Every structure is written in structure tokens, then in C-alpha cells.
């Protein structure tokens, strides 16, 4: 830079000396200065025109560069051009790798613009969604991939749960659609379609097997339990036989309880939402549940209820009673004597909350994510002793999902456990408010492939 500046100063000194000599030779300053400065001015104009032409034609600037400050300008522009070329090469490599990876993905990937028109789709989208890119580039997504439930799902923006549908072009498939906002201001959409046909059929087989096996087992078990109970009540039964008969009766009752819970889960899986919905008097249901809890809580549990008597809920009464009773009875069955159990039913800014909180021994963190799985037990021996089936929390989760609610579980060892059910404001009612009209038409059977809800 210093050399370039010295070179420019030297070039400036030459016309200055020439102008001085012309002035000393008798030429007026008005003519001597422009004449002496003309070569330098011409050089600058030439370089400006040359540089402008090179940039306009997108030519690559390469050495040799002119001397002086113009050389520095050329050199810096050449550096920017080189950086731009490297950046474009990186972008091209990244785009190529992205397309290669996207083309190798077995799931259908479709990018939509802010107007839900197709911007791009990978080859798997042609097979799963019947979307062919670039032939259908710019067409509206709903015009290409039609389904009655897809329009509301796309426009509502509630993308937390996938939509499981059978595409019209191939009813043998079952596709799980997920939509994620992305791009500038999250106005674009990424549609991911996954083939879950095998998983769906496996879940259907499992559900049908559980339902059929439970129905078939219930009748002989009822017969066996009835005969055992008659033998226990018979005065002629020998005393040595009463203990094994009692054990047989207890185990038969435990098996009956498991079968009833399995049948309940099968019924809950038939539809995404309950068909019969009306105003449920939750305070009255909790009063009855607490009476039953006091009857079974022979270990001296302390029940501490705090119930908003004016807060009702829109839903299915048997299902909600089953969910609430499961949480209350679990807190009593799986905690030691003297445990304090707090039951809360109150309204908050987001809707309604039902909380069962105890100060028992708590649950280790590694068990919390799996508590709502079927037959999952923290302590199998203690669960069998207390009569638990391992299905109670799975039923609770299914019931809450069908009522647009969520279950949050928190616990610390030695500090107790909290089960909190959060219901949206759209399902809350006040006792003095008129109940809204509810369509009780049975919904179309769900085809969800997620057996756990």
C-alpha cells in the first residue's frame, strides 16, 4: 500500500513539474495545468472504463495488475471474486449433497411455498404421495394430493401430531404425514410422508388379538371364579382347602381385572375421540372416587382434596371417571401407610387442571418416560402385591388424548410424585353456564398406527 501511494505521488509530481515548466515558458496557468494533468486524468478514465467493462462482463480479474492504487483496487476485487467463486462451489457441493441425501431418503419430502404450492419434491414423493417433480412444480399441494382431512390439517397449523391417511392413488398404503414450518418467517412448509403400512397392520393385528383373546378369556374365567367363590362360601369346604381356594380366587380376580383393562384399552383405540360427549360433573365424580379411595385406603392414607365445585368438563363421563380414579387409586396403592395424597381440580388461564400429588417415596428419573407403557412396572413384585395390572396409566393417557388433554409426570426420590392432567379451555364449563351443543354422531374409525396414542 505504501509503494502504491508513493507511485501515485510520483505520478502527481510529474504533471506538477510539467505545469511549472510550461508556466515558466510563458504559458498561462489556465492552460498549463490542464495540459500537464491530461495524461494522469486519461489514465484514471481508462482504468475506470476498463474496470467497469470487466465487472459488467463478469470477467475474472487476473494478474498482471496495474501499478499504484489502481493495482490495489484490481487486486482487492480479484480477492472478492475468488471468495465468491469458492462460496459458490461450496454452495453447489452442499446443494448436490443435499439432493443426493434427499433422493436416498425412503420418506417422501415435499417443500411448499407460502401459498402451499409445490417448490420441490424427492423421488419417494412420486411413489408415496403421487407428486412428481418438476412436472408438477408450482401446483397447489391440495390439488395434487387430495384427501378430505388434509385441508384442515394443513391450514390449521396444528402440526404436533402426525396425520395418518390412506392416499387416494393407492388405498393399500398407509401414510403418516408430518408438516413442519421453516424458511423465512416460518411461512414455508416441509411435508414428510412415511410409509407405515406394516406398522399399521401389525397394530391392527395386535389390537384385534388383544380384544378377541380378552373376550374369549373372560367367560371361562368368570366360570372358574364363580365356582371358586361358591366353594369358599360353602360351609362343607374343609378348612385346609380354604387357603388355596382363597389364593385361586385372588388370582382369578387379578386376571379379570387385567382382562377388563385390556378391553378398555381396545375400546379406547377404536376412535380418536369419544362419541358420547356431554357436560361431566367432575366434582361429583371426584366425590364418589374419594369415597371409594377411603374404603380401599386401609393403610391410613391422608386424603387432602381441593376441588372447584363449579368447574365442569365437556367429555365422556365413564372415560374421565376411569382416568381420574386410576390416578387416585394408584397414589394410594403404591405408597406406604401414612402418605398424604393431595387431589386438586381447579381452573387456570389455559383451561382446567387435575392434579394428584403425594409425598411418598417418589420414582427414579429413568422410569418416568415409560410409566404410560402397557404392563410397565417399576417394581413388579410390589405391583402384584397391590393388585396393579400395569395398564392404568396407559388407559389414563389414552383417555386424555381423546379429550385433547395432556399428562405431565414429575417426581423426585424421597420427595413424592405429581400427576397433572391439563385440559384445554375449549372443554371447560361452569356450572351456571349453558352447555354447548355437541355432535354425538360416532366419528369415523381412526386408522392411527400409533398403538400407544
TrEMBL record:
<dbReference type="InterPro" id="IPR004358">
    <property type="entry name" value="Sig_transdc_His_kin-like_C"/>
</dbReference>
<dbReference type="GO" id="GO:0004721">
    <property type="term" value="F:phosphoprotein phosphatase activity"/>
</dbReference>
<dbReference type="GO" id="GO:0016036">
    <property type="term" value="P:cellular response to phosphate starvation"/>
</dbReference>
<comment type="function">
    <text>Member of the two-component regulatory system PhoR/PhoB involved in the phosphate regulon genes expression. PhoR may function as a membrane-associated protein kinase that phosphorylates PhoB in response to environmental signals.</text>
</comment>
<dbReference type="InterPro" id="IPR036890">
    <property type="entry name" value="HATPase_C_sf"/>
</dbReference>
<dbReference type="GO" id="GO:0005886">
    <property type="term" value="C:plasma membrane"/>
</dbReference>
<dbReference type="Pfam" id="PF02518">
    <property type="entry name" value="HATPase_c"/>
</dbReference>
<keyword id="KW-0547">Nucleotide-binding</keyword>
<dbReference type="InterPro" id="IPR003661">
    <property type="entry name" value="HisK_dim/P_dom"/>
</dbReference>
<protein>
    <recommendedName>
        <fullName>Phosphate regulon sensor protein PhoR</fullName>
        <ecNumber>2.7.13.3</ecNumber>
    </recommendedName>
</protein>
<keyword id="KW-0472">Membrane</keyword>
<dbReference type="Pfam" id="PF13188">
    <property type="entry name" value="PAS_8"/>
</dbReference>
<keyword id="KW-0418">Kinase</keyword>
<keyword id="KW-0597">Phosphoprotein</keyword>
<dbReference type="InterPro" id="IPR005467">
    <property type="entry name" value="His_kinase_dom"/>
</dbReference>
<keyword id="KW-0812">Transmembrane</keyword>
<keyword id="KW-0902">Two-component regulatory system</keyword>
<dbReference type="InterPro" id="IPR035965">
    <property type="entry name" value="PAS-like_dom_sf"/>
</dbReference>
<dbReference type="InterPro" id="IPR000014">
    <property type="entry name" value="PAS"/>
</dbReference>
<dbReference type="InterPro" id="IPR050351">
    <property type="entry name" value="BphY/WalK/GraS-like"/>
</dbReference>
<dbReference type="Pfam" id="PF00512">
    <property type="entry name" value="HisKA"/>
</dbReference>
<dbReference type="InterPro" id="IPR021766">
    <property type="entry name" value="PhoR_N"/>
</dbReference>
<keyword id="KW-1133">Transmembrane helix</keyword>
<keyword id="KW-1003">Cell membrane</keyword>
<dbReference type="GO" id="GO:0006817">
    <property type="term" value="P:phosphate ion transport"/>
</dbReference>
<dbReference type="InterPro" id="IPR036097">
    <property type="entry name" value="HisK_dim/P_sf"/>
</dbReference>
<dbReference type="InterPro" id="IPR014310">
    <property type="entry name" value="Sig_transdc_His_kinase_PhoR"/>
</dbReference>
<dbReference type="InterPro" id="IPR003594">
    <property type="entry name" value="HATPase_dom"/>
</dbReference>
<dbReference type="Pfam" id="PF11808">
    <property type="entry name" value="PhoR"/>
</dbReference>
<keyword id="KW-0592">Phosphate transport</keyword>
<feature type="domain" description="Histidine kinase">
    <location>
        <begin position="212"/>
        <end position="427"/>
    </location>
</feature>
<feature type="region of interest" description="Disordered">
    <location>
        <begin position="428"/>
        <end position="453"/>
    </location>
</feature>
<keyword id="KW-0067">ATP-binding</keyword>
<keyword id="KW-0808">Transferase</keyword>
<dbReference type="GO" id="GO:0000155">
    <property type="term" value="F:phosphorelay sensor kinase activity"/>
</dbReference>
<keyword id="KW-0813">Transport</keyword>
<feature type="domain" description="PAS">
    <location>
        <begin position="94"/>
        <end position="149"/>
    </location>
</feature>
<dbReference type="GO" id="GO:0005524">
    <property type="term" value="F:ATP binding"/>
</dbReference>
